[in-house]
Amino acid sequence: MEKEKELTNEQKLRALYELQQVDSKIDELRILQGELPQEVKDMGDEVEGLKTRLKNIDAEIKEMEAKIQEHHIKMQNAQASIARYKEQQEKVANNREFDGLTKEIEYQELDIDLSQKKIKDFTRILEQRKEDKVTTTTDINERSAELKQKKSELDGILSETREQTENLLERAQQIEEHIEDERLLSAFHRIRQNARNGLAVVTIERDACGGCHNKIPAQRQLDIRLRKKIIVCEYCGRILVDKDMANEYAGK
Description:
Blueprint lengths: L8 H25 L2 H54 L5 H85 L2 H13 L6 E5 L2 E2 L8 H9 L12 E3 L1 H8 L2
Parallel strand pairs: 1-3
Antiparallel strand pairs: 1-2
């Protein structure tokens, strides 16, 4: 099969100009989405963070309840021991045994005092965590509702523009395959990436570059109109095409 002839520079310029128009339309559709995709992602991350926080709060609540229960049991055991020691005091044979039981009673009373203090501290923490749970649950519900609304907005925009975007992406791929010049395409994408408005190919406007608006010498403008070679702006590096080519494309 005979190899397809390489494109002329004029054909490459036409293809690059069309590729720029297609890519610019894709950019417009993405701008239409605005910051919604990032907002949806950030809000989703925030909701997940709040849910993790709620799990941690629930774990702390269970821990505090367990500790309070543990100290209640300790108090009950200490009170049972005190009752037992007091009963034994009534049956002791001498003062030494009586004093020993009195010491044991004092130790148990100290344990009761300590458990009461611990219960008070843990109860205070427990109440605070319960308040945190209510606040966090409210935050989750509010943020989830906002997230649902933002997702709905984004889905609506994507639904409206999906087919158009897919068609444009397909057309861009076809043009790139038609150009078949990796170095030229690489330069095109590099310029687009570095340009603030994403324009890698611009027309001459009032004797100046349509990208940076610097004046273009008359001889250079003539070379651009001849389309014999690919010429870039010496100031901003954008690829330059003449106004007639732009008008031809607009008339299609």
